[in-house]
Specification:
Mean pLDDT: 83
Organism: Micromonospora marina
Keywords: Chaperone, Cytoplasm, DNA replication, Metal-binding, Repeat, Stress response, Zinc, Zinc-finger
GO molecular function: ATP binding; heat shock protein binding; unfolded protein binding; zinc ion binding
Number of helices: 9
Helix content: 10-25%
Protein name: Chaperone protein DnaJ
Family: Belongs to the DnaJ family.
CATH class of the largest domain: Mainly Beta
Largest sheet: 4 strands, mixed
Order of helices and strands: HHHHHEHEEEEEEEEEEHEEEEHH
Length: 387
């Protein structure tokens, strides 16, 4: 059994998938990481290098032939092929060729086998945009204008990449095959190997006169204005998908998707838990004792609620269906009003006398802290053993 080449890159580790991951698992891992480290989302230079590694890993693992090379311990992107060349080193001269050439003999590169030119038109990447909204907007929905900086189709060449009146030219180095073949001697005998053409980069065609607007890429970066419809009931952190509003691919390829990530601003009065709303209301001690009526301003209405006599601190009033509309289905969450009973901190002489008289009528003893023999004095006597 061949052991992995210690200098080969761990493409599975870069995408965070196991070596037996399916094609769908590899694709999902790539899309997730690409959205996280795309230069438009994360301008950190380290993130840009990470994005390059992610693309390289996906290029290798999404290609069955290149993935077989990795599984056998090679690196298909290393100089000279699999990164396991002979005495001359990768790409160097010598009686033996690199690991890539040997793999060509087994997987289609020998005897004139051809992979063909790779397409210039490729799918674009997804993009992500952060959108801040108020509670009322997330609760009831809104059509929000957004500005997106992405690659779009070059209107000068319509994605062809060529200047007006010119066309792609067949590569003279490879004859349009996108690869060049060579015959070399290995320990297995004579091997016909194929490598991507370095003149046309494997496309099989060249652009003698690139489009002056996009420099042959078929796309340009620009700022666009869109309107995204936010449904009622969305929560903080949710994403709205706009199909094919992301990056246009090279050569005018199909655009990726744009994901609008919702961020809900804190509200001055209400806090949100799911579809329920919570707020705190302070009521005077006398109002809590005697009962009162409060007018609560909900998100889209005013509600009158009764505070029953004898309401205790920390009591909660529930207003059904006055919260946030459910995102999926009908109905709304509830509004919870948490009551804080406020005790007066300063009393004048008359107010204090009336409270003491009230306490006496209820048979409640109120200790006078300023007088000798008050509550604390009696506590002290109790600890000292006095009756």
């Amino acid at each position: 059994m061949r052991t992995p080449n210690p200098v080969a890159r761990d493409y599975y580790g870069i995408l965070g998938v196991s070596r037996d991951a399916s094609d769908d698992e590899i694709k999902r891992a790539y899309r997730k990481l690409a959205r996280q480290f795309h230069p438009d989302v994360n301008p950190d230079p380290e993130a840009q290098e990470k994005f390059k590694d992610i693309n390289a890993a996906y290029e290798v693992l999404s290609d069955d032939r290149k993935r077989q090379i990795v599984d056998l311990g090679g690196d298909p992107l290393a100089p000279g092929g699999g990164g396991m060349g002979g005495p001359g080193g990768p790409g160097g001269a010598g009686p033996f060729v690199g690991f890539q050439d040997i793999m060509d003999a087994f997987f289609g590169g020998a005897a004139g086998g051809s992979r063909g030119p790779r397409p210039r038109t490729r799918p674009g990447a997804d993009a992500i945009l952060r959108l801040e909204l108020d509670l009322n907007e997330t609760a009831f929905g809104v059509e929000a204008p957004i500005t997106v900086d992405t690659a779009v189709l070059c209107t000068t060449c319509s994605g062809a990449g060529t200047a007006a009146g010119t066309h792609l030219a067949t590569c003279e180095a490879c004859g349009g095959r996108g690869e060049v073949q060579s015959v070399q001697r290995t320990f297995l005998g004579q091997v016909v190997s194929a490598r991507p053409c370095t003149v046309c980069q494997g496309f099989g065609t060249t652009i003698p006169h690139p489009c002056p607007t996009c420099a042959g890429d078929g796309r340009v970066r620009t700022r666009r204005s869109l309107t995204v419809k936010i449904p009622a009931g969305v929560e903080d952190g949710m994403r709205i998908r706009l199909a094919q509003q992301g990056e246009v691919g090279p050569g005018g390829g199909t655009a990726g998707d744009l994901y609008v990530e919702i961020h809900e601003r804190p509200h001055d009065v209400y806090s949100r838990k799911g579809d329920d709303l919570h707020c705190r209301v302070t009521v005077p001690m006398t109002a809590a004792a005697l009962g009162t009526r409060l007018t609560i301003k909900a998100l889209d209405s005013e509600e009158v609620v009764d505070v029953k006599p004898g309401t205790q601190p920390g009591s909660t009033l529930r207003l059904r269906a006055r919260g946030v509309p459910h995102l999926r289905g009908t109905g709304r969450g509830d509004l919870y009003v948490h009551l804080d009973v406020r005790t007066p901190t300063k009393l004048d002489a008359d107010q204090e006398r009336m409270l003491r008289d009230f306490a006496k009528t209820r048979g409640e003893e109120v200790a006078e802290l300023t007088k000798q023999g008050g509550f604390f004095s009696r506590m002290r006597d109790a600890f000292n053993g006095h009756a």
